[in-house]
Specification:
Structural class: alpha/beta
Oligomer: single chain
Helix content: 25-40%
Number of strands: 7
Distance between the termini: 29 Å
Radius of gyration: 15 Å
Low-confidence stretches: none
Strand content: 25-35%
Largest sheet: 7 strands, mixed
Shape: globular
Number of helices: 6
C-alpha cells in the first residue's frame, strides 16, 4: 500500500496533464509545488499559496534550484484563490492541512478558510478534476479542522462529486490521511 504523500501524488498524476492549470493551496516547503510544476510542464501554470513568508521563500528556493518558471507564488491565504485565478479552470488542487513543518506550530490552517478555499476551487474545477486534501490533525486545532472538513465533504452532492477517504487505521499518534474530491461533470 502507498504511504499518504505518494498516494496523494498518485491522485494528481492520474489527472494532471501538460498545459493544465493547478493549485497548491499550502505550498509549505515547496515539494507539492515542484511536483505539480513538473506535471503541467512549461505550458502549464501552478498557483502556489501560503500565508507565511518563510514558506514562500523556501518554495522559491526549491523552484530556483530546479529552474522552474511556471509557478506564481502567492503570499496570501488560499481562501482568496478567486482573486488570483480568474476566468480559468483548474484540473487539480492540493492542500496539506496543519502547520509548516519545521516552522511555527502556532500558525495553522483553519476550518473556515480551508472550507472557503475548497468551495472556491470546486467552482474552478474541470470535469474529472480533483482536490486532494492531506489532513494532519495531531496538533492543537487539528481535530476541529478535520471534523469540519469531513462534515463539509460528506455533504457534497454525490451526483456532482465523489469523495474518497484514504487512511491507515492501525497507526498511532493521529496519522495523516487523504480526502480526495473528484468532480463528476
Amino acid at each position: 500500500m502507498k504511504a499518504i504523500i505518494p498516494f496523494s501524488h498518485q491522485l494528481l498524476e492520474e489527472i494532471v496533464r501538460e498545459g493544465d492549470s493547478v493549485i497548491d493551496a499550502t505550498c509549505g516547503n515547496g515539494n507539492d509545488t515542484l511536483k505539480l510544476s513538473k506535471l503541467v510542464g512549461d505550458t502549464g501554470k501552478v498557483y502556489a499559496f501560503d500565508i507565511q513568508k518563510e514558506a514562500i521563500e523556501q518554495t522559491k528556493g526549491l523552484l530556483s534550484d530546479h529552474q522552474i518558471k511556471n509557478v506564481d507564488l502567492i503570499h496570501d491565504g488560499h481562501e482568496h484563490v478567486a482573486s488570483y485565478v480568474k476566468e480559468q479552470l483548474i484540473s487539480a488542487a492540493i492542500f496539506n492541512l496543519g502547520y509548516l513543518p519545521k516552522g511555527d506550530h502556532s500558525i495553522i490552517t483553519t476550518p473556515d478558510t480551508t472550507i472557503q478555499a475548497i468551495r472556491s476551487m470546486l467552482s474552478l474545477l474541470t470535469s474529472k478534476g480533483r482536490i486532494v486534501l492531506v489532513i494532519y490533525h495531531g496538533h492543537k486545532g487539528g481535530t476541529t479542522e478535520k471534523n469540519h472538513v469531513l462534515n463539509f465533504c460528506t455533504e457534497l452532492d454525490q451526483k456532482q462529486y465523489q469523495v474518497l477517504q484514504y487512511q491507515f487505521i492501525n497507526q498511532i499518534n493521529n496519522p495523516p490521511f487523504v480526502i480526495a474530491i473528484e468532480k463528476l461533470k
